[in-house]
Amino acid sequence: MGPRTIMVRKAPGHGNRAIVQFGQLTVPAAIGRSGRTVIKREGDGATPIAAMKLLYGFTRGDRIRFLETPLPMKRTAENMLWCDQPDDANYNRPVKAPFNPSHEEMMRSDGLYDICLVLDWNVSSRCRNRGSAIFFHLIRPCFEPTAGCIAVSLPDMKRLIRHMRKGDLVRVI
User: Fold this and answer.
1) How far is CA 13 from CA 9, 17, 41, 44, 165, in A?
2) Where are the domains of the chain?
3) Taking the CA atoms of the chain, what radius of gyration do you get in angstroms?
4) How far apart are CA 165 and CA 3, in angstroms?
5) pLDDT in tens, 70-92
6) Rounded to two decimals, what is the model's pTM?
7) Range 68-94 burial, b when 16+ CB lie within 10 A, else e
8) Residue 155: which H helix or E strand, with range?
9) What number does CATH give the domain 5-172?
10) For 103-129, how does the pLDDT look when each residue is reduced to its tens digit (9 = 90+)?
């Protein structure tokens, strides 16, 4: 069985909201505060218009239990970070604290990364300043825009992730 496609379409009338469709499931989502772009740059706040493979995910085991998914998942630890410093050799890679260059904390207090799926945007083949930490994660209240990721509610993520596999495509159009 080949990769399946998770479609992410701009929601009508909203530059930073989207509709995620995976098979028969359709759920609302938030995308980047700057909408979508075909020319992604570090810090631009836009979600890349692209087809990105699902690689693996992270989960906060202290908050999320019994997550059903065939997707490879790693338990988030307090020392887990993600480098977003373009001139660092670890750019767009997971790193461990202590780490001085710019980075994202994977164990966030706001719950956004309680379930965090890594998309293959600038991961397998990296280019400086092309964008980092493009994840499929949990949403902020009121569908607040992301920094370039795709975000859905916890109940919707639990419905979707049960069917997600490594290699499935997340296609932002």
Assistant:
1) 12, 9, 24, 21, 31
2) 5-172
3) 15
4) 8
5) 999 999 999 999 999 999 999 99
6) 0.96
7) ebebebeebeeebbbbbbbebebbbbb
8) helix 154-161
9) 2.40.440
10) 999 999 999 999 999 999 999 999 999
